[in-house]
């Protein structure tokens, strides 16, 4: 009886633990921050290229991405390998996207609070 209860408990722990992220993959918390910064870079790049009718800034986006990667101390390949992992694992990818949404919500709330006139 004790062994069967132990076995059931073990199976439940394994089932509830979910899928472990491999060590070579960037953790979700870090990945969400990196992706959020890359999205801001993309927005900036779109704004500056809209003003550049001769398209002189074609390589600027790559330079900006590399700057984000350097600021987090990762290589481009590690980021893209991690991104491929998350897209191949939908449950983990959903957690990643939800984490990015939480960052967005916090920053939006902070911005709104700063722009509110004081009484």
Describe the structure.
- The chain has 119 residues and is mostly helical.
- The chain contains 5 helices and no strands.
- Helix 2 runs antiparallel to helix 3 and helix 2 crosses helix 5.
- The longest helix is centred in the C-terminal third of the chain and has 26 residues, at 90-115.
- It starts with a helix and ends with a helix.
Report a brief summary of the structure.
With 119 residues, the chain is mostly helical. The chain has five helices and no strands.
Topology:
Blueprint: H1 2-17, H2 28-51, H3 60-72, H4 76-88, H5 90-115
The proportion of residues in beta strands is under 5%
Tell me how many strands there are: 0
What would the average pLDDT be, to the nearest integer? Answer: 81
Radius of gyration based on Cα positions: 21 Å
Descriptive keywords:
mainly alpha, 119 residues, disordered N terminus
């Amino acid at each position: 009886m004790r062994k069967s209860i132990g076995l059931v408990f073990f199976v439940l722990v394994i089932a509830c633990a979910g899928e472990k992220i491999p060590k070579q993959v960037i953790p979700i918390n870090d990945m969400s921050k990196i992706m959020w910064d890359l999205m801001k870079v993309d927005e900036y790049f779109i704004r500056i290229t809209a003003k550049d009718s001769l398209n002189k800034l074609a390589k600027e986006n790559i330079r900006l991405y590399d700057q984000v990667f350097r600021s987090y101390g990762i290589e481009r390949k590690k980021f893209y390998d991690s991104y491929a992992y998350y897209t191949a694992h939908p449950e983990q990818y959903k957690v990643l996207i939800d984490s990015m949404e939480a960052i967005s919500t916090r920053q939006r709330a902070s911005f709104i609070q700063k722009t509110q006139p004081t009484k």
